[in-house]
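Deliverable D2.4 — example input (structure tokens):
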């Protein structure tokens, strides 16, 4: 099997999301971790990359050095993951795409809609993949939920209710923690904190599961810690282009809530609900029948769920394995390109720059609506209107 070369920017020692990417990329043996600029501190980044087994000449001090080092190599990286704070995503992703290197960018993909649109167009122009890590869509039962909705198991979707509420930024004494502070600093996070950080996972999942895009929204933002310029709690009502009604709550001050990502979809003939903290069960209620618990790994699930499932029924699979499904889809896409064959159609489920752009437009729409006391606004990106 041909192995692909993989590099990472950000995700340094002690970072939140770096380890999940490294586990996920290494899971199926498709990617070799060969290059990295892992930390804002160049010396710490070089040292940590070598600790993880990256060769000294590819353990870079910063992303520009990495781009220069990699672009000239015959064995240059095929895919780079960008897992730095939000405001840096655009510049880094654009530079690597322009060098012909495929990108998996963390969410939110960019800060402005113009930047997001530019990444969509740059990826198209360069013929490169620019994926966005809405990694929770890699869970087998989220993919099964999507398949059930698409094949009509709950009939026409009436209502989708999404939440992403945690309590990890509720302590006012912790507001200066460097891993918390940047998320509420407009210079580093952009125009929105909690909605851009977590809410958009839930909003994207609502689209992923229903197959509908968000058309309009109305929002209410609050900074429950008064020192924060950006919101730490948001309620967003939305309407989807297929007619579904949407409700979304996101918070970082909900003490006692842990990860808190849940999705519920209610159709004319049934309902579905899934929670990320119990990802191996999906609850299905067909109208007028009894509640069913669908277990990940059991027989007769959809091909999408079977493909995303790795260990046998009854053994819990978790978040790095869901991210692993994004990496597996990317590997299959890249290997197919390299071999001049069509990829397995099932791999088209990974989120793309177009999804990233829809999210950025929704973030800006939500901010505008909150400023206008909840006025309904168009949430579609200009490129897709
Ligand atoms: P963090 O603050 O825990 O870690 C950031 C890491 O990036 C640190 O190691 C830091 O030294 C490094 N870094 C900062 N600037 C850099 C630069 N210019 N070059 C190289 N390294 C740099 O942040 P966290 O939570 O890991 O978030 C990173 C990104 O991942 C954010 O965009 C965030 O929104 C996203 N994220 C996504 C999640 C998901 O579920 N998909 C979950 C958590 C975060």
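Example output (designed residues):
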């Amino acid at each position: 099997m041909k192995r692909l070369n993989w590099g990472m920017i950000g995700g340094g020692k002690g970072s939140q999301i770096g380890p999940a990417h490294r586990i996920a990329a290494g899971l199926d043996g498709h990617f070799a971790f060969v290059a990295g600029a892992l930390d804002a501190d160049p010396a710490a980044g070089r040292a940590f990359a070598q600790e993880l087994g990256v060769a000294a000449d590819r353990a870079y001090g910063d992303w520009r050095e990495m781009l220069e080092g990699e672009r000239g190599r015959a064995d240059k990286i095929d895919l780079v993951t960008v897992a730095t704070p939000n405001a840096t995503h655009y510049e880094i992703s654009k530079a690597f795409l322009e060098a012909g290197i495929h990108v998996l960018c963390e969410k939110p993909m960019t800060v402005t809609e113009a930047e997001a649109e530019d990444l969509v167009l740059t990826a198209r122009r360069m013929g490169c993949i620019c994926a966005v890590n809405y990694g929770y869509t890699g869970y087998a039962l989220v993919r099964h939920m999507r398949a059930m909705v698409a094949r009509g198991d709950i009939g026409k979707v009436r209502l989708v209710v999404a939440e992403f509420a945690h309590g990890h930024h509720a302590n006012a004494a912790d507001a200066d923690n460097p891993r918390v502070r940047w998320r509420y600093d407009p210079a580093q996070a952009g125009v929105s904190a909690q909605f851009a950080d977590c809410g958009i996972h839930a909003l994207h999942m609502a689209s992923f599961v229903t197959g509908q895009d968000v058309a309009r929204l109305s929002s209410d933002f609050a900074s429950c810690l008064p020192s924060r310029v950006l919101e730490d709690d948001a309620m967003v009502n939305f309407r989807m282009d297929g007619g579904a009604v949407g409700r979304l709550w996101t918070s970082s001050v909900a003490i006692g809530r842990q990860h808190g990502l849940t999705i519920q979809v209610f159709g004319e003939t049934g309902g579905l609900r899934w929670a990320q903290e119990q990802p191996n069960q999906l609850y299905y209620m067909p109208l007028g029948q009894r509640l069913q618990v669908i277990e990940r790994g059991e027989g007769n699930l959809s091909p999408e769920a079977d493909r995303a499932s790795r260990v046998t029924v009854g053994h819990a699979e978790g978040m790095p394995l869901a991210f692993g499904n994004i990496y597996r889809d990317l590997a299959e896409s890249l290997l197919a390109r390299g071999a001049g064959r069509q990829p397995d159609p099932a791999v088209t489920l990974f989120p793309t720059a177009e999804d990233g752009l829809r999210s950025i437009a929704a973030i800006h729409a939500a901010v505008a609506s909150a400023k206008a006391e909840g006025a309904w606004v168009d949430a579609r990106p200009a490129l897709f209107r």
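The mean pLDDT is 96.
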